Amino acid sequence: MIGFNVAPFVGKELEYMKRAVDNHKICGDGEYTKKCNKWIEEKTGTSKALLTTSCTHATEMAALLCDIRPGDEVIMPSYTFVSTADAFVLRGAKIVFVDIRPDTMNINEKLIEEAITHKTKAIVPVHYAGVSCEMDTILAIAKLHNLYVIEDAAQGIMSSYKNRALGSMGEFGCFSFHETKNFSMGEGGALMIREKQFVERAEILREKGTNRSKFFRGEVDKYSWCDMGSSYLPSDLNAAYLWAQLEIAEEIIMNRMNTWNMYDEAFRDWGNFDVPVIPPECEHNAHMYYIKVKDIEERTKIIAYLLENNIKAVFHYVPLHSSQAGLKFGRFHGEDIYTTKESERLLRLPLYYGIKPEQVEYIIQKVKAFYGA
Q: In angstroms, rounded to a whole number, what is the distance separating the alpha carbons of residues 286 and 264?
């Protein structure tokens, strides 16, 4: 069976985890947490990066730093993972969903402004498949209306928009290091902070509401409870696992890109279905290769066919606005022209670090065979 995903493992993970154990430092903010934070800062150009227990928690921290309160509204696409909305629902906000673009599956930037009300507090663009949203337009709208921009860049590490790293353009950006992502620590994420004025409070929120980070840097003689907060800090064991991959990040991305290109060269001009669109201003990270078939019935049939041939291919998000919680905590502004229709067509093909070229060729062969080629 060719699985849909295999979590990355490059060989040094266990060595680094053992070193953390030998150093008697397995809780957060040890050697490897600091290495990962610095790497993200250097790669993205953000003022501060803080490793977190998940991308969900990074987004929750961003919601706290934006002072999201009951009655506020937050604009985002419906085609996203539940965590994008949960972080703001937990703060009492109403989610305002707008339609997506059919080319990139990202939020339609042209529909954002008409969804803004006096209650709107933030815009949350989701960079689907590591391909950037139209950030110049989104940032201009946010500036005009004095709104926060929180980038959900869960899939976007090492992707860019006009040479700017995803996650670094809004006030806050959030990465995921879940086992399905390009780089993994099992469960984990990172919060990126553009403006230094938010850094001190972010550290406090992440350390259960204490100024413990300042204490460890010798800036205070004892630490105390200063603010609300939670335990958003991951174990250094998880960071050690991640660091092994960040050390060879370019190699991992190149390996994934080779697979992405194999699919794309086979399918781009084939004509039986739609393939990913990469706008010229975007550089992506080969996080995902998907095809968009005729409709949900055809997708169901091809999933079953591939499974019969020992290939695990999967669909992705069910739009949030049509879910039980989405109906309770949000509303869809405007018309759902593309969100549901395009989500029902999308099929993700296996793509992970280390998948063999002959496996990819077999997948391509079976996809084409389904269509009689």
A: 11
Residues 40-98: tens digit of each pLDDT: 999 999 999 999 999 999 999 999 999 999 999 999 999 999 999 999 999 999 999 99
Domains of the chain: 13-246 (3.40.640.10), 249-370 (3.90.1150.10)
Phi-psi category of residue 162: left, alpha or beta, with phi > 0 → left and psi -120 to 50 → alpha: left
The tens digit of pLDDT for each residue in 106-154 reads 999 999 999 999 999 999 999 999 999 999 999 999 999 999 999 999 9
Confidence of residue 215 (pLDDT cuts 50, 70, 90): confident
Helices (H), 180-248: 199-206, 212-216, 236-246
Angle of helix 236-246 relative to helix 249-267, nearest 10 degrees, comes to: 60
Q: What does the alpha-carbon distance between residue 153 and residue 155 come to, in Å, rounded to a whole number? A: 5
User: What distance in Å separates the CA atoms of residue 6 and residue 355, rounded to the nearest whole number?
Assistant: 8
Contact 231, 261 (CB under 8 A): no
Element (H, E) at 151: strand 148-152
How many Cα atoms are found within 13 Å in the side-chain-facing hemisphere of 188? 26
pTM of the model: 0.97
Under the phi-then-psi rule, with left for phi > 0, alpha for psi from -120 to 50, and beta for the rest, what region is 271? left
Burial 205-244 (b: 16+ CB within 10 A, else e): bbbebbbbbbeeeeeeeebeebeebeebbbbbbbbbbbbb
With CA atoms as reference, report the closest residue to 62 among 138, 114, 125, 104: 125
| Cα separation, 258 vs 358, whole angstroms | 12
Phi, psi of 39 (to 5 degrees): -60, -45
The 8-class DSSP code of residue 191 comes to E
Token readout for 102 is 């059919």
